[in-house]
C-alpha cells in the first residue's frame, strides 16, 4: 500500500475539500494522461445554453473519488468488510472510469472515432498506466472491467447507483445553476448497503432514489437534451463529418497533428493500438475549437458556415415534437436552401435534418435498483415503491426534432 | 398609496434580503398581532426529527411577500397590468394569509379549537387590522377571500401554484436540511403567466411543475409525515384532549390565562367573537410548552406521562404499513398497559392507538394547474405532460400506523 | 469502547449529515439533560433582529462534535497519535462543553444566577452524567477541565482555535443570513497541526486565521452586539432583576416552579448543589418567555412595561457612540419619565440607562494562536503575519450606549 | 428606448437568474464580439490551482449587469433620480467594460500587446458597436469614459465600490471554492447612496466595506497571486516572449492567423486600427492553448519545455519571501541549467528568474471610499472606521519570488 505522507487537497465548490488519500493516487493525478482531462469540458457545448457549464472531466473525476471515499466509510460502518487494497482499487477505478473520453465525446463518437467506446479507451489508458506504475492498478482494472468477484464493488463503479451518476448530476446541476437537478448524494450514499455482495438501497432510501431518478430525468430534458444544445451538438457532428469528407477529397484543412491523424485514419477496436492511444491522449477541446476557428474562413460553404454558427452562437432553428416530423416540411426548407445558395442536396442536408431524442429514466431491465427492507426482504424498486408509479419512469420517452436555417441565412 | 420613504430590510438566509416596500406594510409587520408570529414555529414539533426546523411563521410570511414581489414584477414584464393598489393588496394578503395560525396548529385544531379553521381566524385578524388601519386592507381582504374579480390574484394567494407553497417548501427544505425538497421557486415564478385572468404556467415550465409536485410529495412523506413527527404530534393532541377532559372534571391544571380560556370554553365559528380573537392573539408556542413542562409533574398518569415523552423526546413506538393494522395487535398492547399500571381502557387509548396518513401530490379535481402552450392552447398539466404519468401523482396514497409504548414503559 | 452498531444521523443544513459515532454518545444525546438544549436558543433574543436566528444549543453541540471528528481525522492523517479512547473523550467533551448554559444565558448570569459560570455548571452536569454512565466520561471531563496532559486536546475544546468557535461562527452566520461571518471551518481544521502537544496552525493557514478573526469581529459588532439586540437583552435583564426585587418584597408573581426557585434563592458556587442542578435542568427559554407573557399584565409598571416591550418588539431607543454619554442627557430622559408616570428614580432607571460594549478580536495575552512554519519555527500569529496589522485586532474596542424610551411612551 | 418584449433569462449558479432587460442589450449580447467572451476565461491559468475556476468573462459581464440593475433599484428607492436612458447606459457600460480583454490578459499585456490597455480596447469595441447600433451606445460610452457629468454613474462602473469588483470577487470565490473571498454584494449595494453626484456608502455599511476589502486582500494572496498560479503565468509570458523572439529570427511557428498577426506586428495605441481590432476580436484562449500544444513539440528547447510544463502541469519550483532573493542563489540555479543542457544565459533566464508581487488592499490616494453618516457628514472610510486600523490595509505589501527548475529537469 502506498504511504500516507502528505495531506494533498483540492478545492471544490461543491464538497469543500477533496482529499487525496495517498501518493499513488496523487501520482496518477499528476500524470499527463490525467492532467489532459483539465482541457476536456464535462458538458461539451452546453455552455452555449448554460453559461456556467465550463467544468471539466478532471474535476468530475476527483468528485467521484471523493464520493467513493464516503461510500467506503458508510459501508464499513455497516459492517461490510473492505480491505485497504480494495478501497484503493475502488478509488482508482472511479478516478479513471472516464479517462477515455475525448473532446466533445458524443459528437466525436458519432463522426470520427466511430467504433471505439470511451469505456474501451479508458481501459487502454488504465492498462498503460498499470505498466508505468508497476501493476498497482491491477485490482482497479479488475473492478472496472466488472470481473472482480465482489460484485457490489463493480456496481459502485457502474450501475444506476454508481458514484459517477452521484457526482455528475450534482455537479452539472451546480454549474448550470439548474437547481432542480441537485441530488442529495450524501443521503443516497448513507442509505447504501450490501447483501450477498450486491449493492442495495435501504428501505428508508426509497423516496431518495425516486427523487434521484426524477432529477436525472429533469436534467436529461432540461439540460442534456436542451434543444439549443442539441442543435449545437448536431452542428459539431456535421463539422467533423464534413471535415472528414473533405479530407477524403484531398481538400486542405488546417488543424492540429492529433486531429489530423484522426481525420485521416479509420479507427476501430482492432486498429486502435498503442500509437493511436498516444495520439488520442493529445486530443482535447482545444484541437476541436481551434480547428473550427480556422475553418470558419474555409472556402467550403458547408464547413465555414457550420463553424461560424457555433462560434457566434448563431445556430439553426429547431422544432421539437412528440410525433415524427413531416417529410414535406423538411423538403421545403431543404429546397429553399439549395436554390438560394446553389448547393447540392447532400450539402443542404448539413443544415436541414431531423432526429430523435430518447430517454428512459429508470432502466428496468438491465441493472435494477434493489431495495433492502428491514424485514430482510429484497425487492426491485419498481415493486417496492407503492407511491409513485415508477413504471412511468421505466417507459422510454421519444421526441422528434427538425433543424433548419433561420430566415436570414 | 403609502409613501416609500425608507428602505427597511430583513435578513433572510434563503433570499438574502427581504425588502419592505412601504410604510403601511412596515406598520402591519410591527403590529403585535404580526409580531406574535415570531413565537409560533412553522413546523410544530418537527424539530424533534430535524433539529434545524425552528423557523417561524413570521419568517415564512415575510418570505411569501418577497416572492409575491417577484411574481408581480414578472407578470408586469409580460404585460399583465397590475396597479400599485393591487400590488399592495397582493402583498398584504399573502403577508397575512397565515396570521390565524395558533401554536402547533394541527394539534390545536384537532383538540381545543375544533371548529374554526385558521383561514377563518386569519380573516378575523385582517378585518380587525383593517379597522385599525382605516380601511387600507380592504382590497387585500377581497383578494384573500377570493372575491376580487381578477381571479389570478386570488390564485397567487391560494392555489397549487401560490406563493405560500413556493416559500414554505423551499424554507422547510432549507431549515430541515432535506435538500430533496428544495424547489426552484424563482424559476417557477418566471414561468407564470396570465390569460383571461387565470394563472397559468408556460409550456417550458412543465418539467419544473412536475419537479415541484414531486418535491412536495417528498417533503410530505419524509418530513411532514415523518413517523417520529407523527408520534409527537399525536402525543401533543393527546395532551390537549386529556387536559380538556381533566378540566371538565374540575381537576386543577396550571397554565397561562390564554390557554386556560381555550381549555374552559367551547369555541366554534359562532362563539368566536372579538374577545376570543384578543385572547387567541396571546396564544403561542410558549403557552403550550410551558404548560407541558408544568403538567409533566401532574398527578394524572396520562397527562404527566404524555408530557414527559415529548419533553425528553422519549416517544411511543410507531409502525407504519400500507394496510390497516390488526386490531388484535392493538388490543394486546393496550391490555398489557392496563394491567401494568392499573389504568382504564380509555386511559390506555392515549398510549395505544392507530391512525391514517393520506397524501395526494396533485389535486386533480379542485384546483388544476393549467399549462399555456406557445400555440395559445391551454391544458391541464396532467394532460400536458407526456412524460411522467402525473396521474400517479393524483392518486391519493394512504398509510396506516399504530403507536404503542416502548418496552421499558 | 462502545460498540459501533447502528448508523445514527442527524440532518444539518450546514454540514449535510452529522453522524453519531457510537452508542454511548447516542445515549448521552438521548438523555433529558441534553434534550433540554433543544429548548434553549443559541442566540437568545437576536431573532428580534435576525428573524432566522432560532437555532438551538442542541444543534450547535452536535455541530461541534461533527467538526471534532474532522479535526481528529486531519490530525491522525498528519501522524498525530490519538487513541480511540481519546477520540471519544474529545467528542464527549465538546458535545457537553455548553450543557451548563441556561436560557438567555447572558441575561441570566447578570441577574439571577450571578456567581456561577456556565462552564462550572457544564462540569456539574458532566459529573452527574459520569455517574449515570459508570465512569465513561472520566477522560472527557479531564480534557474539559484542562487537566489532561496532552494539552492540544484541551485546546481543541477551548482556545482561540477551538471547535466551539469553528461551529458557532459558521452556524450563527448561516441562520442569521449574515454571510460576512461565514468562516471556512473546514479549511481551518485542515491547517491544524500539533507540535509538542501544542495546537498550531500551519503557515499556509495564516490568511485563513486572519479571515476568521475578522469574521468574528464582524459578527461581534454586526450581530452579537447589534444595538437592537443589546436593548432587548438589557430589557430582559431588567425584567429578571425587577422580578427578583418584587419577590423580595413578597409581591406575587406567576411563573414556573423552576424559575420560582431561582427567583427566591441566592445561588452561588457553594450553594449550587445536586438539587439546584436538578432544578436548573428544568429551566429553559419557555420558563422565561412564558413568565414574561404573564407579567406583561402585572400591575407593576416597570415589570409589565418591560415585558410588553420585548413581546411586541416595541423596544427602547438606543444611541451608540465612541465616547461616554453625557450624564445630562441621561438625566433629562429620566426626569421626563418620572414626571410623566409618577415613578421613582429607581424605577425610571429600568428605562433610561447607559452601558459599554467591548470587544477584542484577538486575545494576545492569554491564549495566543501560534503558527508553525515550514522551517519548523513557531511564532505568535501577530508576529507571523506581515500583512495585516494584527495588532489592530488585539486592541480592545469600547463603545458606549444610552437607552431611553420612545416619545410615545 | 428599446421595447421590453420578451423575458430573456440566463441561468446563473450565483444569482439564480439574470434577466435581460431589453432587446438592444439582448442584441449586443448576441453580437460576435460579445459571444467571443465565452471563450475567454476570467481567471486565466488559475484553474491549475483551483480546478473549478473555468468561468468566463462572458458570465462575469452578465453578472455585473445584474448587480447594476440592483444598484439602480436601490438608488431610485432612496430618491436618486435615474432616467430610463441613464439606466440603459449604465447597464451597457458595465456589460462591456471588460470586452477589450484578450486571452490570458495579464500575460498578453506583458508580452505581445505591450502598450495598449484592455480599457482602451474595450472603448474601441464600444465605439465600433455604437456604429452598428446607430448611436445607441453613446451615453454608455460617455459613462465608461468618465465624462458623464453625473459622477456617481462613472463610479458605479469604475471605483473601489464598482459593480465589477462586486461581481468578480463573489464569482471567483464561488468557482474556486475559496469561501473566504465570498462577499455580500447585495448588502454592499443596499448600503449605497448618492450625495452631490458622489457614490457613498452609508454609515451602517462600514463593517461591510471593511469585510469587502479584507476579502479582496484574501483573494489576492490566496488566489490571484497563489504561488503556483504565479509560476504558470510567468511561464506563459515566457512562451509568448520566446515565440516573438523566434519569429523575429524567422523561425517557423505554427499558430492561428490571429495569433500570427500579433506575433509579427508591433502594436501600440497609434498602430491599433480598425483592422487590428477585427483581428483582435478573433483571438481567444483557444488560439493560445492550441499554439502551446503545437509548440510543445517544437525543436526550440526553451519553447517546447515551457509549453510542456503548463500542459502537463509540471511547473517550475517557486520560493516566496518577504525580502528580495539573493543573486547568488539565482546564479547557481542558472549555471547548473546552462551546464546541463548547454544553453545560453539568455535561454536559462526563461527557467530561472525572480520577481515581485505587490498588493494594496485599499487605495487611499486615488479613489477613496467615502462614508455618509446619519448626521450628514462625509468621511473617508479610513477615518470613519475606528475599529480596524484600515491604514494597515492602505500599506502596499510586497513579496519577492524566485522560480527555478525541479531537480529532475
From TrEMBL, chains A, B, C, D:
By its UniProt entry, which Pfam families does this protein fall under?
Answer: HD, HD_assoc_2
A GO term, aspect molecular function: dGTPase activity
SMART domains linked to this entry: HDc
What's the superkingdom here? Bacteria
Choose any GO biological process term that the UniProt entry carries and state it.
Answer: dGTP catabolic process
Q: Which residues form the HD/PDEase domain?
A: 53-178
Q: Which residues cross the membrane?
A: none
Query: What is the name of this protein?
Result: HD/PDEase domain-containing protein
Higher taxonomy = Bacteria, Pseudomonadati, Bacteroidota, Flavobacteriia, Flavobacteriales
Amino acid at each position: 500500500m502506498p504511504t500516507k505522507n502528505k495531506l494533498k487537497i483540492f478545492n471544490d465548490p461543491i464538497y469543500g475539500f477533496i482529499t487525496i488519500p495517498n501518493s499513488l493516487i496523487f501520482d496518477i493525478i499528476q500524470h499527463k494522461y490525467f492532467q489532459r482531462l483539465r482541457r476536456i469540458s464535462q458538458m461539451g457545448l452546453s455552455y452555449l445554453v448554460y453559461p456556467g457549464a465550463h467544468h471539466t472531466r478532471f474535476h468530475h473525476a476527483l468528485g467521484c473519488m471523493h464520493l467513493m471515499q464516503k461510500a467506503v466509510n458508510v459501508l464499513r460502518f455497516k459492517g461490510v468488510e473492505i480491505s485497504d487494497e480494495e478501497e484503493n482499487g475502488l478509488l482508482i477505478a472511479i478516478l479513471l472510469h472516464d479517462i477515455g473520453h475525448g473532446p466533445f465525446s458524443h459528437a466525436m463518437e458519432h463522426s470520427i472515432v466511430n467504433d471505439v467506446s470511451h469505456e474501451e479507451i479508458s481501459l487502454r489508458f488504465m492498462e498503460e498506466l498499470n505498466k508505468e506504475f508497476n501493476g498497482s492498478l491491477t485490482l482497479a482494472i479488475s473492478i472496472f472491467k466488472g470481473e472482480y468477484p465482489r460484485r457490489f464493488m463493480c456496481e459502485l463503479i457502474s450501475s444506476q447507483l454508481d458514484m459517477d451518476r452521484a457526482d455528475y448530476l450534482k455537479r452539472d446541476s451546480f454549474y448550470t445553476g439548474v437547481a432542480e437537478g441537485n441530488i442529495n448524494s450524501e443521503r443516497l450514499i448513507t442509505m447504501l448497503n450490501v447483501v450477498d455482495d450486491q449493492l442495495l438501497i435501504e428501505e428508508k432510501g426509497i423516496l431518495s432514489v425516486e427523487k434521484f431518478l426524477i432529477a436525472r430525468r429533469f436534467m436529461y430534458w432540461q439540460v442534456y437534451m436542451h434543444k439549443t444544445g442539441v442543435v449545437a451538438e448536431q452542428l459539431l457532428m456535421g463539422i467533423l463529418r464534413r471535415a472528414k469528407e473533405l479530407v477524403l477529397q484531398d481538400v486542405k484543412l488546417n488543424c492540429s497533428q492529433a486531429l489530423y491523424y484522426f481525420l485521416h485514419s479509420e479507427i476501430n477496436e482492432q486498429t486502435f493500438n498503442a500509437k493511436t492511444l498516444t495520439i488520442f491522449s493529445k486530443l482535447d477541446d482545444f484541437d476541436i475549437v481551434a480547428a473550427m476557428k480556422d475553418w470558419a474562413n474555409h472556402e467550403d460553404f458547408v464547413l465555414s458556415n457550420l463553424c461560424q454558427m457555433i462560434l457566434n452562437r448563431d445556430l439553426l432553428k429547431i422544432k421539437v415534437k412528440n410525433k415524427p416530423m413531416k417529410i414535406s416540411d423538411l423538403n421545403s426548407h431543404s429546397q429553399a436552401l439549395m436554390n438560394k445558395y446553389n448547393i447540392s442536396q447532400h450539402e443542404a442536408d448539413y443544415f436541414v435534418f431531423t432526429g430523435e431524442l430518447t430517454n428512459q429514466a429508470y432502466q428496468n431491465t438491465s441493472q435494477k435498483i434493489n431495495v433492502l427492507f428491514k424485514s430482510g426482504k429484497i425487492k426491485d424498486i419498481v415493486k417496492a415503491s407503492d407511491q409513485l408509479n415508477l413504471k412511468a419512469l421505466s417507459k422510454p420517452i421519444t421526441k422528434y426534432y427538425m433543424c433548419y436555417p433561420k430566415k436570414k441565412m
